[in-house]
Amino acid sequence: MKKIYILTAIVITIFQSCDPFNTIIEKEGETDAAYYYTADNIKTPETNSDTLTIATWNIKFGGGRIDFFFDCYGDRVLMTKNEVISNLMGITDEITSIDPDILYLQEVDIDSKRSAYVDQLQYILDYSDLNYAYYGSQWKSDYVPSDGIGRMNSGSAILSKYPLKDAKRIPLPLIDEQSNVVQYFYLRRNILRATVTIDGKDIVALTTHTSAYSTDGTRLKQLKQIKAEIDNINSAGQKFILGGDFNTIPPNSVVYENFDDDACKDDPDFAAQSFKDELDYMTIFIDNYEPAITQARYDADNSLYFSFTSDQNGFWNRKLDYMFTNGDFVDGSGLVNQDFSTGGKETMPLSDHAPVTVKYILK
Amino acid sequence: MKRTIIIQIILVFTLSINAQEVNDSLKIDETPYRLWSSNTTKTLQKGRKEIGLFGPLKFGLKDSMEISVHPLAFFIIPNVELKKYWTSFGVFDLASKHKFVYPTLLYNVISKEGIGGLLPATSTIPQMFTFNNNVMIGTTINEYLIITANVGLDLTLSFGDSNFPEIEYHIIYPRTYSYNNLFTPYLGINFTGKFFANIYYEYKFTAFFMTNNYEGSILENKLKFQWNISDKFAVKGGAILTYGEYPYGQDGKVFPVFDLMYGF
Question: Which residues in chain B touch residue A113, judged by CB atoms under 8 angstroms apart?
Fold first, then answer.
């Protein structure tokens, strides 16, 4: 009998190791997959304002403007620790300057070979006025056997000056058109949500980062699921603020294809896509909730609200980053921090995305 | 970590000495260990060949010497290993293994863009010659227990420009560490014997010491069972638990072990 137990234990052990690269985040469950962080030193926030500053920023894993292989401007894959820390110092200075009460980050590496295993979320908490955070991974693998990427743990985060609770990572649909092997190692998009309580009022904070390179309708499915999530929150009578990198341009965009920064035209894996048939994707949010940048402002001058370019020597050329609420933003307070001339900060050297900020009215 | 290694080593050596004191003169039928290769001091019978679905081709060159190569991998990672039984002194047997690997071709292949690129395409791979030398001392307690201790060193001599990262993946990392860091010492102990009928067990503990860079160590515990179906066919299965200090921190993982073997 003892021998049967031993053999059974071995069989169980073998079955437990069926995820040899540890990529399937969903197996952790929605609440277990949201990881809580605190700053080394908790800073007491100033509490005399009727408004909160909210920001969202895709920080490109602290890669600054290093020319990586996927941008087709260069061939870099891995960074040194000094490069990562130097870029994070710039990012943290910018965050300190914006002084957000709640900050959404996308493409934060916490344990990746490409960023020298620097825990970027912990660094930002420790060197800014933000105190608490939840992290949800969107790309995790003990080893990504492609392009020399190696170990990866990168995702989105909600940071706050105030304590966070009730966090969960909600998985979004995977890209259907990928083979099983590619899908196994690929990014697993999600919604990360948590609740922040300020002056006794609960606000549900949500961030997301939808698929960039899908042509099979996966992104639309993801957008619809995000919409359903905030609809549920709204129906429950709760206030929410959603922010993130939607990888989708707004309706009425004058330029929607053949972007001038696309150096990957000959590479089907990384070529900038045409948004010609996707110009109405964001209307489900814009028509139902308040955006940080209203459609009227965007229609008046698209370029003021562009938040992305892959060309550090060019200028921001499309808007991919958004914030929405079922509460109230201060009219006209939405800003894309492109550079000094637009009233923001000089952010071009820090990431391929510019941070978007807005003031939220506490009622 | 170091304390864990020391305790584990002391424990297994103490056990082996005690076991030996109980019964140090028993001779067992060594046929199973000469028909099928093992991590003991025993070698394949002269003329005996063994090939695994995943494992190498092994050949008994002499009654006390076997040679092995991975035939399919050979063209991309030339490799050869010689195992030699030397002598016995008292109840102990002495053997050694000597392995040569030329990983440069393989590393050039896996330095690429896209799928299969384990290393960046920009990597500069030097000419690398890896020598692995391993000394084994074993003692047979009874048919249910053969204990073999071993100590070894991976040494990689590199020539030419070199710029490529380590492969920091569990069982691969300690076995390729010397490519970037000149050498990797290791030691281990192996317990093997009859489980029941024609089924044999093997427990193998190995500690790799990453002495040149992060000063970490990797511990591997392998438990497997081999069913010798006949003199020609055998199947083995089990698991490896690996745990240790990697450049990114402490980590561990379990891997399955499986192979089908044909002997002739």
Answer: 165, 168, 248
